[in-house]
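Need the bound structure for adenosine-5'-triphosphate, inputs here:
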Amino acid sequence: MPPLSHTLREGLSLWGARSDDFEDAGLEEAFDQRCRRKLVDHGASVAAVTLAAALLFWPLDYVVLESAARAAFARWRLVVALASALVLALTRFNVAPRALPAVWVSLLLACTASVGDAMARAGDPASPYLHLLYLPLFATVTIPLRLTSRIALVVSVALSAALGYWGLHPAYRGHPAGALWWSVMLGVGALTVWLGHVLLLLARENFAHQRRLSTWAGELEARVGERTAELRALLAHVEGVREDERTRIARELHDELGQELTGLAFVLRFTAERFERDPSAIRANLGELDAGLRRTSELVRELVSDLRPRLLDDLGLVPAVEWLARRTEERAGVRCKVIAGDLGEIPLSQRTVAFRVVQESLTNVLKHAKANVVEIEMVRRLSQLVVVVRDDGVGVAAARADTTRSAGVGLVGMRERAAALGGAFSVIARSPSGTEVRCSLPL
Ligand SMILES: Nc1ncnc2c1ncn2[C@@H]1O[C@H](COP(=O)(O)OP(=O)(O)OP(=O)(O)O)[C@@H](O)[C@H]1O
Ligand SMILES: [Mg+2]
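Answer from helper R.:
Posting the output first, comments after.
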């Protein structure tokens, strides 16, 4: 059989309350402080309700009570109204705030004793007035107190009632109604302790939840702030890159293509003049024209490939990535291995994102990694396209520590592109050195 304490705790948990202590001592202290504040507020609200009830129901006494009882009731109404008014005034003018809880607990006890006295004056123990003395116990239910203090308060209130009734009126002692009164008082006392404690436990749980929620809200706000700043930087970067790209294309069109075309126009004019004079002498010029046209179309192809490789649209992701790898090898002297099985049909948006992730990762490798070998792996796994770019360079942490400028937006851009398709993106430091960029995109 489980121990009694366990059964009791289970009983409490039926009400949704746990008695576990807070995980952290700061929370315990904060909750105690809040309880002290609540005690003061609670004192004021109980005083206000009591004052209103004592005065508003006064006229009823003239309807339901005989004159002896009416005088006794008037007495307690007056005492209780004065005590409540005192509590309200002290709270309102914030007199001795630290002593307020003690003051109003003392007034509660004094009022209970006075009500006990009044009930004894209203009639003997056989009259129903005696049983109104259970009511003050309920005033303790909403007081935020620890269990031992709560038991002490409930016992004190019960004893005050007994003092007012049986203590000030010894003639009533030994009356047969006394035993019943004490036993009901015991039951009501236990009930109010239990209810009060359950309320306190619920308040504790509520307090802990609120604290946790506000911590989470703070963290969430910080993360949203970080992400917003990142996205703002990304937007600025994208705008900048677009402008740079336009400038570069304009320059290349002007410098390279423009020059070639001017040359071709010149050769053509010269060939036409020569043709007039000596048609058989233009063979060499035609060869020059042919070479010029070849160079121009090569230039156009390079320009277009830089913008978006046709391979990506015509032949698919793997040939486009292989082309990118060969170009990186030629331009930067880093070995690029492409590992890819049969990926099947990949939708256009996933193909584009995967290609751009590989492109930016290769740029990062050249810029930061000081690597010798890069591996680009592409697989289709559980209806996901997984792209991994790993290098054997210095690693992200070392590269970051080395850099003096602020963090760029390449990684943020890749993560955002992946997120826009519902995918995941991560950068992992490899052991013993190197970096692995991993991007999975749902298909
Ligand atoms: N393969 C890598 N090896 C080592 N460090 C890397 C690698 N990739 C990224 N990093 C580190 O991560 C940082 C952030 O990379 P990110 O691409 O976001 O910015 P960036 O390359 O510095 O600038 P941007 O891409 O905006 O031109 C880099 O500055 C670098 O320190
Ligand atoms: Mg970068």
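Comments: The beta strands are 335-340, 373-381, 384-391, 424-429, 435-442. The longest helix spans residues 177-277.
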